[in-house]
Amino acid sequence: MAAATHRPSAKKRERKLAVKPIEKQSSLASLIIAHEIDVPGAILVAILVASAMGSTTATKMVKLSYETSPGSNLYDKGWDDAYFVGFWVLAFTFLRAAVMRYVFTPFAKAYGADTPAKQLRFAEQGWSFAFYSIFWSLGMYVMYNSPHWFNPAEYWVGYPHILISGWMKWYYLAQIGFWIQQFYVLHIEKRRKDHYAMLSHHVITFALLVSSYCVNFTRIGNAVLCCMDFADILLPLAKILNYLNLRTICDIAFGLFAVGWLVTRHILFTIIIWSTAFDPPKYMDMLWEPEKGKYFTPTTQKIYLGLFLLLDLIILFWFAMILRVIIKVLTGNAASDTRSDSEDSGDEDDKQQ
């Protein structure tokens, strides 16, 4: 009799768990997510076809604008660059959804991520790992072929740096498109405990990217992106290994991530902040002359230092979380992401059944 009364209760609970993820999303959000491959994909195809047929607007979306002369590989900047950024916002939305669905989710199912929640997280982290691996490598290539390769003085020498290489321009505008698209991603992924810190980080990063491009500070922007992107390769890798239940390798990857974070975000980024605070007067006149492409004054300097320091505070907040995980590992526990809510809460409910 007791078993008979318990069984309907269990079924009722299962139904409740089954609809729980759906209830968290509005019908509009669910509709957008359901079509985040086909709608952007169709628009991208239309743009490519229109460009091939000679449409000026479509061509601006798929090719860099303002080349100084054919074959020079030197580019100016202007409002038409917004078309290119818009194309990459769509492209990253399409690529993220397609790669997650058709590459990382099947891989997760085949290699040990045994619940839908884990498979989704695996796919999200797989996309992050792929993106940052490519763009960190590209950013380092751009910096290696530029005067500012591990030389902060070159951020300021010869300012304003109005003309930039094709690779620098493509890299910078694609990064701007990615960070615009990240605002969308931030609101469709499951909300983490540090949601507002992440949102603040996105806003500051976007402001720095757009403003540095417009005021001819792409060299220092390139260096900052390289500092930030490196750790974002290793953290998704550690999470991927965790979802595959490769605990020992996961802990090693997390240790490498912690070291990489310390070196790039707390040492190299501090060198960039120091250079911004003390180097500009040594190499430039710091006058406001927009007609000459000069926008860096003592006031501008204070604004950038303020944004850098705000970014550094958020990074320190996250580093405190990293230290908590390191302490857990050193005391014999497996590494886990303290940033997340119980992202596998569905799995925990399953275990309780």
TrEMBL record:
GO molecular function, a single term: sphingosine N-acyltransferase activity
Domain TLC, chain residue ranges per copy: 117-331
GO CC aspect terms: membrane
Membrane topology category: Multi-pass membrane protein
GO biological process: ceramide biosynthetic process
Keyword Magnesium: no
Keyword Transmembrane helix attached: yes
InterPro entries: Lag1/Lac1-like, TLC-dom
Residues spanning the membrane: 82-104, 125-144, 253-277, 303-327
Membership in a protein family: Belongs to the sphingosine N-acyltransferase family.
Protein name: TLC domain-containing protein
